[in-house]
Structure formats: C-alpha cells, structure tokens
Write a structure and sequence with these properties.
With about 750 residues, this protein is mainly α. Helices cover about 60% and strands about 0% of the residues. Among the domains are: about 100 residues, no CATH class; about 180 residues, no CATH class. Strands 1-4 form a two-stranded antiparallel ribbon. A two-stranded antiparallel ribbon has the order 2-3. It is rod-shaped and about 170 Å long. The N terminus and C terminus are likely disordered. InterPro entries: ARM-type_fold (IPR016024), Symplekin_C (IPR022075). This is Symplekin C-terminal domain-containing protein.
C-alpha cells in the first residue's frame, strides 16, 4: 500500500503544470485509494473497526472536487516571443504561492499509513490546488482585455481565423464602456473596410452587443443599448468621413445590422439633405446625397419594418429647398418608390397635400420694388436634374386674362409663398403625373384658386408634363370637355403644348370646338388648332381673333399662315389683310384700335407681307363696295414700307377719283394727305379732280398751289385742262379775281373732318 501511495504521489508531481493531465491524475488517485481499502480488509480483521472509521473518512476526503474543463485550442503553439512579460511575471508569483500552500495541505493523514521516506529520485513537488478565478479590479480587467484584443488583432493581420471574430466580439462587449478600446476596434474596421474581414468583425461586435442587450435585465439592457448605439453611430460616421461616396460599406452596414437606433435615422436624414457642397466636390466618383438616398432605397427593400421611416426621409428630401437634393429625391420617389404597392398611396397623398397646401396660400399686401422683384426671379434657378427639372428659369410671367403669357408688372399684392417655395412643393406632384395621369384633375382643380406665383410655377412645369402625356391622354380630353372653373388659361397652355410639334388629333379638335361653342367663348383656346382649320371655319371667328391682345394676335398670324403640311395655310397673307379690313367695328363689336393694331402687326412681317402681297390685297380692297374704312391708312402704310409702290399707289388714287372719293369723308381726308405727301408724283392725279375738289385741296394746302401751277406751265397743259382748273391755278389774269364763291356741301363736310377716328395718318 505504501508503494502504491508513493507511486501515486510521483505521478501527480510529474503532472503539476499540465492542465490536460490534471483531471486524469485526480481520477487515478481516487482509484488507488479504493484499491488500498480492499487490501486492508483482507489482511487484518482485528483492525476492522479502525479500518471502517478510516474508510468513512476516506469517502469524505475522496469526494471529487468540482473541476473546470479547459479546452486548449487545436494546433495552437504558444511561442515565447508572443508572451507579454508584464503578464507572465505576476502570474509566476501567483503560481509559486499556490505551490507553497498546496505543499502544506498535502500532509500525511493520521489514519493512513506513514508514507515512505522520499528517496533521492523523488524530486517532484506536491500537486497544487488550482483556483477557479483570479479577482481583478475593473481597471485591471479593461487593461488585460485591451492587451488581449491588441494581440489578437495583430495576429489577425497575419492569420485570419473566423473563430477569432467571436472571441474579439466577446472581449469588446466586456469593454464597451472603454472609449479607447472602441476607438481601436473602429480604426481596425475602417482600415480593413476594403476586404471582408473588417465588415465581418463589425457585424460580430454589433450582434454580440445586441444579444447581450436582449438577454439582460431592463437595467443592464439600457446600458448595453447605449454602448451599442454609441459604437454604431461612431462607426457609421467614420465610414462616411473616411470612404468615398461611391463605397457601399455604409449602406451594407445599415442593411445588415441587427438593430438601427433612432439616432441613426437622423444621421441618414442629414446625409440625404447634405448642405456641405465642398465635400461633394471632393468626391470625384459620387456625392453624399446620392449615397444617402441609395441607402434609403436599400433599407426600404431589405428591411420591411423600416419602410415607412425611410419613406418619410425620401419624401422630406423630395420637398427640399435645394434643387440638387430635391431633384434626386424626386427621381427616386417617382421612378422607383412609386411603383411599390405599399408606398403608392402614401406618396400620392403627400404630393396632393403639398399641391393643395401651396395653392391655398393667401396673398398679402406689400410693396414690391424692382430689387425684390429681381431677387424673387433669382430664386427660380433650377439645379441639374434628369427628367422633370432642367437648368433653366421660371419666367417672371403670368397668364393674363386675354392670353397665356404676359410680362408681370409690379403690384401692391404679393403672394405669401415665394416662387421657390411653390416650386419646392409642386415638383414631386408633376413627376407623379407623368406616371399616373389621373392626378391631373387635382392640378386643374387647384389652378383657379392658386396665387400668381403658384400659377407661374405651374406654367413652367406644364409643357414637359403635357409632352410626356401626349395628345391621346384620355384624362386630358375629359378635362378639356369639362374644365374646372378658373382653369381656362391652363387649358389654353395645354393646347399650345399639344399642337406645337404635331397636328392635333380629331378627338382633340372636336373637344375644343365643343368647349368653345358651349362653355368657353374665348377665342384664345382656338389658336393652337387654327393650322388645322379650313378657311371656311377661320373667317367666321376672325373678328374674335383680332379682338385678342396684340401678343395673342401675332400668335394667330403665325398659326394661320403656317397651316399644315397636308392642307397648307388656312389663309394667305393677302386674305389676312382683306379679312382685317372686312371687320366692321360697330357690327362686330371690335374696337377700331384693335383693327389698326392688327394691320400694323401685318406690316411688321415684311418677309410675309411683301410688295406683291400688298398690291394684290389693295387691288381687291379698292373695288370693295363700300371701300373699307381703313383703306387709305393701309395705302399710306404700304407706301412707307415699300416706296417702289408709288406708281401703283398713283393708280389707286386715280381709281378713287373715279369712285368719287370726296363723297366718303373719312377716306377723302386720307386721299388729300397722301396726295400732298407724294407731290410732285401726285400732280397728274390732282389735275383729274373736279374744279371744286381741287379748289378745296389748294385751300387746305396753300403751299401746293405754286408748284402745281409750275407743273402745268412746264408741261404746257393749257390747252388740255379745263378753263376752271387754269383759273384756280392762277394761270390767266382773271384768276387774280376773287375765287369762286360756290363750295358744295360735300366739301364743307370734308373740311370739317380732320382725321380718321382711332387712326393716325402719316
């Protein structure tokens, strides 16, 4: 038995520092004790009582102590170079103290046989008792964790094992309160962001922190959640600041993280609404606004519980004051998010509420000086946007009562909403209308009650919208058939856009004609369709077209003379002039000033209303019965525009004498003025006048008598002219007597008439 006991002691001493053999030797030691018990019972019965007591004591002594299994890493060799001397030294002192205490505990039991005296070969120390843990202060724990994490990270650079991610995550979670450790891990993740290792470590840390937060009590969970949020936000900011905008690490982090705190959404919203343009200019391969909106798009698709939060961010950006931010957000919402069934209704509601809200803004009384007007116009500049927004300006114009566009004048009333504000709140709506034309009804309903600046914004957006929808859009045709109150000007602008590049469809023409004949007696809505109207349909409405403002009538001329490729112009230039002169101001209820302005507009287009056109139209007008009221005014304008027409005009004057022009008082005044202006070319015509009419003219223009007499003497026309004419000219002595006393009532009437009403003759 003594031999066995000594043998057992030797075995245990040989395995003092081997953790892997420790549990095995404890088992052998207990087995030998049971074996010695059997041998004692068989050898000595007298000592049975003592042996029994001893056996009971041994049962107590040999009860197995609780052990802690430690699994050594597979194939891990610890080199002396990898051991930190600062850690080894204190640990060695602890082990030595444990050896001394263990040697004192292993004294010989009085109930056991005396052990054999040690021989020179027995040099091993007694087996120590290994404690379960070593108590350290919080500072010491953090220090050791930091050293361990640093060593693992250094080795991780050389040999990457996935098992170390979990080990690092546990160590980091235990040290989450230490900023130095968290900064160390964060820098390591950023440094390895180009490869998968940095991302994997970040995910392990986040999931470890979140799992602890979920598993712990509410008090502990709050603390862990704060550490999680702090680490997450800091890491996200570092990714934004350290990596280019085109890098996907930030978006991937948010999509794969176990939980997104509320502060993270504020960071994402700030990124989407970035106002730091200098940072964007630094990024040659992208910008931060695109990065933020791309992340929002990824979160909406990849994390359904966060859809509504991310959608709110996108909608806020779609109404942002900066054109660049708003343009990119509008494209994201209209092109991608609007097609998602779970987002369509919310997006529509947001866009409609924005439009209606800005349309209901009331005007306020204020003084607008030229400086504030220029500043208001400067706010309209639009940033570069792909589809619905371009780099142009909204013109400072308004839709006047008689036509679509008119230069705005300074007014004492200004809208409470600025042009830039109106554009900000309507951009998304117009982008959605291109995808769903049924929204147009909301636009036309709101137009009538909208302030001036909102209408300007609508006018600016409308052409692009109408071009995208096309003339065959059924919603547009329905609105034209039955337009909401106050939307007539918007209808006209719509028709102009629909017909500027193509001929109107038959359905569109029918809808406009029905609208004009039944509800809207405004000829301006017919202007876009005039090229497709035949002559028989244009002439009846021509007085209404002339009654439009001059700017609108110029548009009328262009469209009538343009015509279509198949039918040609609705009216020729000569027919236009004749149609203008056929207007009776009293009968047609058109102001004479409108008619004269229409004639002037024609003469301004000399490439269209040429000399040949004027000759043709005047030849027809002079034969009209009665001669048009503005005929002589038109003859004077024609001669001023084309002096080469002088011979032709003399022929017109001769024909007027044949028609007894002096019996037409308003035309007679123009005849006299033109004759005086065209002397001496008009002398032959004047000598064709009857003596009373010639006498009247010479009395009206006394300076004309002498040159006319000289003209007769030079031509030796004494024998061809009537004696009364010669007497009027004073060629014979008797002409020195008093002039003829008779003056017809017609001449008296003509003398009382000084000019044509409403016209200024040259």
């Amino acid at each position: 038995m003594e031999t066995n006991s000594v043998h057992q002691t030797d075995n245990l001493s040989n395995t003092l520092y081997s953790n892997s053999r420790k549990a095995e030797n404890y088992s052998d030691y207990q087995g030998d004790l049971h074996k010695n018990e059997g041998e004692q019972q068989s050898a000595s019965q007298p000592n049975q009582t003592i042996a029994k007591d001893k056996l009971e004591l041994l049962d107590v002594v040999t009860e197995p102590e609780p052990t802690f299994e430690v699994e050594a890493p597979v194939d891990v060799r610890i080199h002396s170079s990898d051991v930190d001397e600062d850690i080894v030294k204190p640990m060695s002192s602890v082990v030595n103290s444990l050896d001394e205490s263990d040697s004192m505990d292993l004294e010989v039991d009085p109930f056991l046989p005396a052990p054999k005296a040690p021989t020179p070969d027995d040099t091993n120390d007694d087996l120590p008792i290994i404690t379960s843990q070593l108590e350290l202060s919080e500072k010491g724990k953090i220090s050791i964790n930091k050293l361990a994490i640093g060593r693992i990270l250094d080795d991780y650079k050389k040999n990457s094992f996935n098992a170390r991610f979990s080990l690092l995550a546990h160590l980091i979670a235990q040290s989450a309160a230490d900023d130095n450790i968290m900064d160390l891990i964060q820098r390591h993740i950023i440094f390895h962001s180009h490869d998968q290792e940095g991302y994997e470590l970040a995910m392990h840390v986040l999931y470890q922190l979140q799992s602890i937060s979920v598993a712990n009590s509410p008090e502990s969970s709050t603390s862990t959640s704060k550490h999680y949020e702090k680490f997450f936000i800091s890491l996200a900011r570092s990714l934004i600041d350290s990596l280019p905008a085109s890098d996907k690490s930030f978006s991937k982090l948010l999509c794969d993280a176990p939980y997104l705190p509320e502060s993270l959404f504020r960071l994402l919203e700030d990124l989407c609404m970035s106002e730091d343009n200098s940072q964007q200019l630094k990024d040659g391969d992208g910008d931060r606004v695109t990065q933020g909106l791309g992340t929002v798009w990824s979160l909406i698709l990849g994390r359904p519980p966060l859809r509504h939060v991310c959608l709110d961010i996108a909608l806020k950006c779609a109404a942002h004051s900066q054109d660049e931010v708003r343009g990119k957000a509008v494209r994201l919402v209209a092109k991608r998010l609007y097609d998602l069934t779970y987002a369509t209704e919310k997006i529509e509601q947001f866009a409609i509420e924005s439009l209606v809200g800005v349309a209901n803004e009331h005007t306020v009384d204020t003084d607008i000086n030229s400086k504030s007007l220029k500043e208001s116009t400067a706010e309209i500049e639009v940033g570069s946007q792909g589809t619905s927004v371009s780099g142009s300006q909204i013109p400072d114009t308004e839709f006047s009562e008689n036509g679509p566009f008119k230069t705005s004048s300074v007014s004492t009333k200004q809208s409470a909403v600025s042009v830039s504000e109106a554009k900000r709140r309507t951009s998304l709506f117009f982008a959605l209308c291109t995808k769903r034309s049924s929204l147009l009804q909301h636009l036309f309903n709101a137009y009538g009650r909208s302030p001036k600046v909102v209408k300007q914004c609508i006018h600016w957006h409308m052409p692009n919208l109408i071009r995208n929808l096309g003339p065959s859009c059924p919603e547009l045709l329905n609105i034209i058939h039955n337009p909401p109150e106050g939307s007539e000007h918007l209808i006209t602008l719509t028709l102009q856009t629909l017909t500027e590049d193509s001929n109107p469809s038959a359905d569109l023409v029918a809808a406009v004609k029905q609208l004009y004949n039944t509800k809207l007696k405004d000829a301006s809505i017919l202007i876009p369709l005039l090229p497709s109207f035949p002559k028989e349909e244009v002439l009846p409405i021509f007085p209404r077209l002339v009654d439009l403002p001059l700017e609108r009538f110029q548009d009328v001329l262009a469209r009538i003379l343009q015509g279509t490729a198949h039918t040609g112009p609705a009216l020729t230039p000569a027919e236009v002039l004749i149609a203008i002169h056929d207007i009776n101001p009293e009968k047609d209820k058109v102001a004479l000033k409108k008619v004269t302005d229409a004639c002037t507009a024609c003469f301004e287009q000399r490439t269209v209303f040429t000399q040949q056109v004027l000759e043709k139209s005047l030849n027809q007008l002079v034969d009209r019965i009665p001669i048009p009221l503005l005929f002589m005014r038109t003859v004077i304008q024609a001669l001023d525009a084309f002096p080469a027409l002088v011979d032709f005009v003399m022929g017109i004057l001769s024909r007027l004498i044949d028609k007894q022009i002096w019996k037409m008082p308003k035309l007679w005044v123009g005849f006299l003025k033109l004759s005086f202006q065209t002397q001496p070319r008009s002398f032959d015509v004047l000598l064709q006048l009857p003596p009373p009419q010639l006498e009247f003219m010479l009395n009206k223009y006394p300076n004309l008598r002498t040159p006319l007499s000289s003209f007769v003497n030079q031509r030796n026309m004494h024998n061809t002219l009537p004696r009364q004419i010669l007497n009027i000219l004073g060629i014979f002595s008797e002409t020195q007597q008093a002039p003829m006393a008779f003056v017809t009532a017609t001449l008296q009437t003509a003398d009382a008439t000084t000019s044509l009403p409403g016209a200024t003759l040259m």
